[in-house]
């Protein structure tokens, strides 16, 4: 599946007063996720510096962050390109999510407070009816609210990277009929399991939730030899 690319003039210069690297990373991440910058397309430091109105130093730092997040590959000649997308990459992301998120949920369960469960429920209340990019952001916020009490920063950092990587495929895919509603029901089941502090039920719910999403995406991409 080929992502559409926007012409260069679609990127107006942006002036960033503070938090330069973080804001550049966020802007480029959104462009990559939404297909505004296509897989394999080079990221030229000069053009990006002009776009954001900064020197090359924060651009280089932003590219390093994007490489760690899996959005960019840096070749031997130091040229950066948007990372390719593939069915095998999609499968890796979701199979890793399944293992790591179940681990995080089990680790968090004993420390989860009612306030944190309520916070996740409020995020869930605002998740319906949004576009794919915003859904990915809110979906990640919902899950991370429940995982954060595990207090395992390395584990949480890896889950965060996987969520970001999954957003590319989320924006490329078309939601199957009833898929969002099914996701909503599974989120509510997860909240109920957390309310009971039932780690086994929460783990089972997550396995179904993530596994069903993977199956849905694989069904869309596999026929195209993706």
From TrEMBL:
CDD domains: WHTH_GntR. Gene3D superfamilies: GntR ligand-binding domain-like (1.20.120.530), Winged helix-like DNA-binding domain superfamily/Winged helix DNA-binding domain (1.10.10.10). It comes from the Bacteria. Coiled coil: none annotated. PROSITE patterns: HTH_GNTR (PS50949). Residues 18-85 form the HTH gntR-type domain. Keywords: DNA-binding, Transcription, Transcription regulation. GO terms for molecular function: DNA binding; DNA-binding transcription factor activity. InterPro entries: GntR_C (IPR011711), TF_FadR/GntR_C (IPR008920), Tscrpt_reg_HTH_GntR (IPR000524), WH-like_DNA-bd_sf (IPR036388), WH_DNA-bd_sf (IPR036390). The keyword DNA-binding applies. This is FCD domain-containing protein. It comes from Algicella marina.
